[in-house]
Write a structure and sequence with these properties.
Layout lengths: L4 E2 L34 E2 L7 H8 L3 H15 L7 H25 L6 H22 L9 H14 L3 E5 L3 H10 L5 E6 L2 H13 L7 E3 H7 L4 E7 L4 H10 L1 E10 L4 H13 L3 E4 L1 H4 L7 E5 L1
Parallel strand pairs: 3-4, 3-6, 4-5, 6-7
Antiparallel strand pairs: 1-2, 7-9, 8-9
C-alpha cells in the first residue's frame, strides 16, 4: 500500500482530502482541509477498498509516526520555517492525532467512550480547578481540565496501584482525590521548592493528604520504582528528569506526558521513548485545550 503526496496546486478532482469534523466538546479538534491550510493533499488512488482504508487507519506505529515525523519534516521547513511549512506541519500533526486516536481505541477499547465520560468528570473537577487557578497558578501554567479528565479516566479504567507525578500542581489534587478506598499510592516530586510549597498548602486547604510529597532530590534518594502510571509535564529541560522517570516505570506501565504541543520537547520525549521500544499515541484529539496544549500517552 502506498501513499502519494501531491502539492495542493496539482491536486486533481476526486482526490480525498482531510476535512474539518464537527465539534465534539471541549478540547476536541478535527483535521482541517488541506487546501485551506495551504498544505498537501493525500491521494486515495492506492486505497482500493473499505478494507484497505480500515487497514490504513490501523497501520502500525511505523506509518503514523515515522512517515509523519520524518518524511514530512524532510519536505518542509517545519514549525520554525515560513507560513507554508508551519501549515504543513499543523496538518501533519492533526493527521497523526486522528490516526493515533484510532490506534488507541483499538489498543485500549475501554477508553473508546472517553469523550462521554469526560463530560461527566468536568463538573466534579471544576470547583477545585477554579480554586487552584485563583490562588496558586494561572490557567496557562496549570494542568488543563482536558488532561485532568483523561488522567482520571485512565486511573478509573486501568486501576494502577502506584502512580508517580513529576512536577506538582493541580494534578496532585486530582490524583489524591482518586485515592478514596482504592489501593492507590500517589508519589509526587518537584524540583521547584516554591511550587512544591504552594502545592502542599493547596492540598492542606482542600483537606487532602500531603503524604509522599517529595523534593526531586528526596525522591531520587528514595529509590522508589515499579510505577504503573507516571505523569510528567514536558518543557525545554525535560530530558534528564524524563529519563529518570522512565526508569521507574514498571513493564507495561503507562506514561502521560503533558505539553506535547511543543515540537522540541515532544521530539526529545519521543527519542527517549523510542529507545525503550515504547508504544506511543498522540492525545491531541482527546486533550487539546483552549491554549492548544495536549498530551502524549506511552506504554513501556
Amino acid at each position: 500500500m502506498g501513499v502519494e503526496i501531491v502539492p495542493p496546486d496539482e491536486a486533481q478532482p476526486g482526490r480525498a482530502e482531510p476535512v474539518q469534523g464537527p465539534g465534539k466538546g471541549p478540547g476536541w479538534t478535527g483535521v482541517g482541509a488541506a487546501g485551506s491550510a495551504g498544505g498537501w493533499a493525500m491521494s486515495s488512488s492506492t486505497i482500493s477498498s473499505p478494507g484497505a482504508a480500515s487497514a490504513l487507519l490501523r497501520a502500525p506505529r511505523a506509518l503514523s509516526r515515522r512517515l509523519g515525523r520524518h518524511m514530512w519534516r524532510a519536505l518542509t521547513p517545519g514549525v520554525a520555517g515560513p507560513p507554508r511549512g508551519r501549515a504543513v506541519e499543523a496538518v501533519r500533526r492533526a493527521m497523526e492525532a486522528r490516526l493515533d486516536a484510532q490506534r488507541l481505541r483499538d489498543f485500549l477499547p475501554e477508553l473508546a467512550d472517553h469523550r462521554r465520560s469526560r463530560e461527566r468528570v468536568f463538573p466534579a473537577l471544576l470547583p477545585a480547578y477554579r480554586r487552584f487557578v485563583s490562588s496558586v497558578a494561572p490557567p496557562s501554567r496549570t494542568m488543563s481540565l482536558e488532561v485532568a479528565a483523561f488522567l482520571c479516566d485512565l486511573c478509573d479504567r486501568r486501576q494502577p496501584q502506584r502512580v508517580l507525578e513529576l512536577g506538582t500542581g493541580f494534578g496532585s489534587a486530582v490524583l489524591r482525590r482518586r485515592v478514596g478506598g482504592a489501593a492507590l499510592h500517589v508519589f509526587s516530586a518537584d524540583d521547584d521548592p516554591q511550587r512544591l510549597a504552594r502545592t502542599r498548602e493547596f492540598l492542606v486547604r482542600e483537606g487532602l493528604s500531603t503524604e509522599r510529597l517529595f523534593s526531586w532530590q528526596e525522591f531520587v534518594a528514595s529509590r522508589e520504582s515499579g510505577f504503573q502510571l507516571v505523569y510528567h509535564p514536558l518543557d525545554a529541560s525535560t530530558g534528564p528528569s524524563l529519563a529518570v522517570a522512565l526508569e521507574k516505570v514498571a513493564a507495561g506501565g503507562f506514561v502521560l506526558l503533558d505539553g506535547a504541543q511543543d515540537p522540541a520537547a515532544e521530539r526529545t520525549a519521543r527519542r527517549l521513548l523510542d529507545s525503550l521500544g515504547a508504544e506511543q499515541w498522540s492525545l491531541r484529539a482527546l486533550t487539546r485545550d483552549c491554549y492548544g496544549r495536549h498530551a502524549l500517552l506511552a506504554q513501556r
